[in-house]
Amino acid sequence: MSSSKGKARQRQLARAKYERQLSRRAASARRRRQLIAGASVLVLILAGFGLAWLLGAFDSAEPDDNPTAETTTPAEEEPTPAPSDEPSEEPSSDGDAESSEDPSETPSGDTDES
Q1: Residue 37 and residue 48: Cα distance in Å, rounded?
Q2: Which helix (H) or strand (E) holds 95?
Q3: Where are the domains of the chain?
Q4: What confidence tier does 3 reach under pLDDT thresholds 50, 70, 90?
C-alpha cells in the first residue's frame, strides 16, 4: 500500500505543478495581449498624428499669413463703400456737403458756370 500512497502523492504533486504552469502561462499570455494592445493603440495614435501633420494640421505659419492678406484687402475696400453710406448726411444745408465729389452734383455745377 505504500506504493499506492506514493503514486497518489506523485499524481497530486504533478497535478499541482501542471496547474501552476497553466496559471503562469495564462498570466504570461494576458501580459502579452495587454502589451500588444497598448503598442497597437500607440501606433494608431502616432499614425493619426502623422496623418494630421501630413495634411497640415500643425502648420500654423501658413494659415496666419493667408488671413492677414485677406484681411488687408477688405480693409482697403471698406472706405470706398463708407462714403456711399453718408449721403444721408449730405442733404443738410452745410456748405461742405455741396463741395463733395458726388458725380450727380458736378453736372449741376457745370450748368451754373456756363
Answers
A1: 16
A2: helix 95-98
A3: 1-60
A4: confident
